[in-house]
Each structure stands twice: as C-alpha cells, then as structure tokens.
Design goal:
10 helices, alpha/beta, 7-stranded mixed beta sheet
C-alpha cells in the first residue's frame, strides 16, 4: 500500500505541502539536490512528514512520537535526538528543522552533538533565533489564546525555554566538530521574514473554511513570490554545515 501511495503522490506536485512549512524546507531541498542523488538522509524530529513532501525521495525520520498525517516515503524510526539509535557516521546528511527550540539549552547541546556523531558529509539545522523571533512567538501564543481558547502547542516549549541566539548554535556546532575531530565550514542564512511569517501563521487560526482554503491551498501557488520577501528581520536561521574530514572513532 505504501508503494502505491508513493506513486500516486507523484501525480500531485503539492501533495502534503503547506505554504509556511514549504518556506522552511525549500532552501534545504535546494542544498541537498546539489549533492549526489545517492546520499543517505536522516531528519531528526521529522514528525510524520518532514522534508519528504518537498524533497520527494525516501529518507529516514527519527522522532519520539509520530502523529498523522504520514508520508509514504518517510521511514519512521522511533528514537530520541539525545541518543540517536545509529552508529557513528551512519548518514551522509542529517537535518533538523524547527526542532531545537523545543529542547532546553542543555539538551540542545546534546542534540547537536548527536547530529555530528552520525553525520558524514553535511548537517543542516533550521532553528528560530533571537529576541525578535521570541517576541513574535509570545504574540502568536496570545493571539491563539484569544481565538482558539488555548495555547498553540507548538509554541509552548520554545516560549518556556527561550530561543537561541545565532552565535549559540554556531559555537555549539564548532565544539561538537572538535569533539568528533571533524573539520567543518559553516554558512548561515536568514529564513522567513518575520512579517510574512506572522501573516501566514495567523491564517491557521481561522475557522472560516474559505480562509483555510486560501492559506493552506491557494497560497501554495504564491510560494515563489513569498520567497522573494525573504529579507531581514528573519524568524529562523539556516546553518549549512559541510564536513570535510571526519574520524570515525
């Protein structure tokens, strides 16, 4: 059945896409597609979809709990980012998208360390950074409370733990590279303009079916235009980490 669903999904380009989520993943897809088609990819904290709808190729996803919807091309592996169930250098590429902000500062260190342990060629981390991004999360949480009557669960942990600064992630990555004797270069890019993000996120709240269709479906065709507005201030930062040498200790 999963093979049948995978084939069917190819006929609908936007299968399991969401406009705001696409803005997170498409720069990462572009980076991966510059590599060999044979690379083995792991996404940590993938949930049931992860990058697969945008990459359109099978990958492994690890998470402590998988909730629907699911994508047939994602191989679901239960596990914790703090203790990945894989050997050293098991994957060519390891990615993490909007996952680290759900961890405490101490656990963020462990998570990045584990990514370096299992990655062989490249690590890509997407994470909201900075006070402006945090302030927007607080405002969104208040907005959801007024409109839905409760907190938006995806915001709970990052408001509790706070968001890292860009330099925090960079410093943790450099230390992890030294710990595993891996030589790296790091490129950092801003992702998703703050004003654009709050506009798209508020669209999730409406109970109006027509507004839902606009924000979840019609806006898929506007993604190329939305990407033109990827200017500072940005909500998240993308860390493209190339590993040049590693010692599989």
């Amino acid at each position: 059945m999963s093979e049948f669903l995978a084939k069917i999904s190819c006929f609908w380009f936007f299968y399991r896409w969401h406009p705001e989520v696409a803005l997170r993943y498409l720069p990462i897809v572009y980076e991966i597609k510059k590599m060999s088609h044979q690379v083995k990819i792991l996404e940590v904290g993938s949930g049931g979809l992860g990058i697969v709808p945008y990459l359109k190729k099978p990958i492994d996803g690890v998470d402590i709990n998988f909730q629907p919807p699911f994508h047939p091309l994602l191989k679901k592996i239960k596990g914790s980012i703090l203790n990945l169930p894989f050997k050293n250098n098991s994957y060519d590429v390891v990615i993490s998208v909007d996952m680290l902000e759900h961890l405490s500062k101490k656990d963020r260190n462990k998570a990045i360390n584990e990514m370096f342990r299992v990655a062989k060629q490249k690590i890509i981390i997407a994470v909201p950074c900075g006070q402006a991004a945090y302030n927007q999360d607080v405002l969104l949480d208040q907005y959801y409370r007024r409109n839905l009557g409760n907190s938006f669960h995806f915001l709970k942990e990052q408001i509790l733990f706070g968001l890292p600064e860009k330099k925090d992630i960079y410093n943790i990555a450099c230390k992890a590279a030294r710990d595993y004797n891996k030589k790296i270069t790091v490129r950092i890019e801003g992702n998703e303009n703050l004003k654009l993000r709050i506009f798209l996120m508020k669209g999730w709240v409406s109970n109006n079916i027509f507004i839902n269709i606009i924000f979840r479906k019609l806006f898929l065709f506007f993604i190329p235009i939305f990407r033109l507005f990827n200017q500072p201030p940005n909500y998240r930062q993308l860390f493209f980490i190339d590993i040049h040498n590693e010692d599989s200790n």
